[in-house]
Structures are given as structure tokens and as C-alpha cells.
Amino acid sequence: MRKSLIGIIVLIIAAIAFSSWINSIRPGRYTPPPPETSSDSSTTQKPAKPSAAQTAAAAKNFSKYESDAVNGTLNVKGLPPIEFQLYPKAAPKTVANFISLCKSGFYNGLLFHRVVAGFVAQTGDPQSRKVKGSDIANISAQEVAQKYGLGQNGSSKTIPFEVNDLKNVPGAMAMALSSPKSNTGTSQFFINFTYNNYLDGNYCVFGRVVQGLKTAMSIKQGDRITSITIQ
Predict the structure, then answer these.
(1) Residue 69, by phi and psi: left (phi above 0), alpha (psi -120 to 50) or beta?
(2) Is the separation of the CB atoms in 131 and 111 below 8 Å?
(3) pTM above 0.85, yes or no
């Protein structure tokens, strides 16, 4: 009986170690779940519609960092330019990594491989450069992951999770992680379509769309980035 118990404990420890190893070699593979499909009971509620006071408070939080903001432009094939700001004081390492990737041309040609209506649009998987946008336009994000392996890849560098007071409001840009609050951010990021309040504090918000929000919210799965430029 004792040997069996020890064997079970060893198997559990091995499973935990294997899971940690998988996350370390496949950084950023996790995409935040829509609330209605989350396996975590603490995040199964739908995003709450923010009150006027909450909206004002969220805007004020962003305004604190605007004096040092870095401006950029997201260009998506077939869509007007989308202007955004990055906030180095709120997330210095995340912003530095994003700027470096943009300037190297990393995002050029990548697809928005996961778009969930009323939730988020996500991009940043380098493997998507080899996939036709039309092939994933009309299938579920789960099928995209299973058939094409998208959402599982990133750059060769990971960054630490950074905590700030910025919220996942419409247009906010945040990092995708292998698990909430983990040091697994790499190149994948998402643009919020609504106030995903249950993601606040779990995924680092590092920027937001400041012009062209309607355009950003019209992004479809399979749309391809032509470039992201930093001013």
C-alpha cells in the first residue's frame, strides 16, 4: 500500500514537472478563454458591462502613462491603418520586447489566427506566416489550433509578467500567456473587443488602440498583418 502511494506521488510530481517543461518550450501558447468556456470556475462569469465610473477610472489609468507613450501603427491587409499607443512606464519589459519585434519585422505577414466575436483578436504566432488566411477564416479557433498548430508558437524570447493598473477595455492590447500571471509572454498578443474585466491582473495590458477602434474591432480570423511600425 505504501509503495503504491509513493508511486502515485511520484507520478503526480512527474506530471507537474512535464507540464512546466511544456510551457517553457511552448511559450505564449495559451490564449485567454472566453468566460463561458473557461474551465476555471472563478472566471466563468460573462464580462460585466462597466459603469460610467469604471469607464472613467480606466481611462484615467491610461492617461497617467500618456506623457511617455510610444506611438505605432498596425497595418492589416484590406483595412485602414490602426493607430495605437504603448506605455513603457506601465510595462517596460513588455513594451521593449514588443518594440524590438516590430522593428525587426517579426509581425509582418502574420495572421490574426484567433478572433472571437465580442471577445478578442489575437496574433503573433510566426507559424501563421505559412498558412493561408482563407483556410482558417471560417473554422473555429479550436480547429485552427488542432489542424494548423497555430497559437502554440512565439519568438525565441520570453519576458516576465508585469503587473499594472491598466484594464482590458475595448481596444486594450495585452500579452497572451501559457497560464495567467506567468512569465511566458513572448510575441502573441490580443486586442480586446469588450471590457474583459475578468482578465484584469491576469494578462499584462501594455498598450491600446487610440484611433481606428472600429477598424480594429472589424478584424476577422485569417486577416493578415502587413506591418507594425513604431514612430
Answers:
(1) beta
(2) yes
(3) no
Residues in Cβ contact with 33 at an 8 Å cutoff, skipping those fewer than 6 apart: 39, 40, 43
| Order of strands across the sheet that contains 205-211 | 112-116, 120-123, 189-192, 172-175, 205-211, 82-86, 70-76, 225-230
Condensed to tens digits (0 to 9), the pLDDT of residues 159-178 reads 999 999 999 999 999 999 99
Question: Which of residues 1 and 112 earns the better pLDDT score?
Answer: 112
DSSP secondary structure string for all residues of 177-207:
-SSTT-S-B-S-EEEESS--GGGTTTS-EEE
Domains observed in the chain = 2-230 (2.40.100.10)
| Segment 41-59, tens digit of pLDDT | 333 345 566 677 777 888 8
User: Which residue in 211, 183, 155, 132 sits closest to 23, CA to CA?
Assistant: 183
DSSP H/E element including 101: helix 92-104
As a whole number of angstroms, the distance between CA 89 and CA 170 comes to: 21
Mean pLDDT on 82-90: 98
Confidence of residue 142 (pLDDT cuts 50, 70, 90): confident
- How would you class 63 by CB atoms within 10 Å of its CB: exposed for 0-12, middle for 13-18, buried for 19 or more? exposed
